Amino acid sequence: MWEPLPVPIDLGPPCPMIVRAExxxxxxxxxxxxHDWNQLVHAISGVLTxxxxxxxxxxxxxxxxWLPSGTRHRVGxxxxxxxxxxxxxxxxxxxxxxxxxxxxxxPLLRALIIEAAEIQGRDDATGYPDRVTDLILxxxxxxxxxxxxxxxxxxxxxxxxxxxxxxxPSDARGVEEWGKLLGMSGRTLARxxxxxxxxxxxxxxxxxxxxxxxxxxxxxxxxxxVALELGYGSSSAFTYAFRTEMGRxxxxxxxxxx
Length: 258
Prior knowledge:
The protein contains 9 helices and 12 strands. With 258 residues, it is an alpha+beta fold. It is globular, with a radius of gyration of 19 Å. The two termini are 35 Å apart. The model has no long low-confidence stretch (mean pLDDT 89).
């Protein structure tokens, strides 16, 4: 079960931007709601699960979700997250996106979001907070949209399956074993997974490993430790798989994201 958190309603409309900084404990969420302004959902650490317009997916600190004004959404975290939410006025976000969009968060945009949260509410006669806001809006207009984050089932047995694999991506049990555990045949599990998540369980697990790799590489674990935690037999096998998907080695990715 997930614990609901009260939806914040006391900050007022943004003019042009308000930044909320909050720690999400494990298995806590903001229930489905909507705002009369745009919102950017971002985690500076950990992973967020975002449900919007009938779809549910997880985003890493390298990603953010743009929610246009009026979009109903739910935000939570399975394992806990440092959460940053940018509320942006309708006119200020007019050129970002007209529909819900997952964006890649550049190191510069990430740094600006962190800085905006740090300085919010401080008196500054130099106009520095306004310049930070302008830079964030400019970066959002230039941000690279992504085809999707990690798809995520909304409820039921498939949600339990994905949560278990997210907690332990090295789990090697196949579709028949998982089907038996969840009370269905392997064929039924495979069909339901593809229908609800939009890809095969095998493909999802491969993307999960990449997703978790990006999250783990942001910490201080060695490449070998990350490889073993993800279920790879060696660091070289992990490096090959990561390079195939990302176009660069895990070490190069780690250096480039700092």
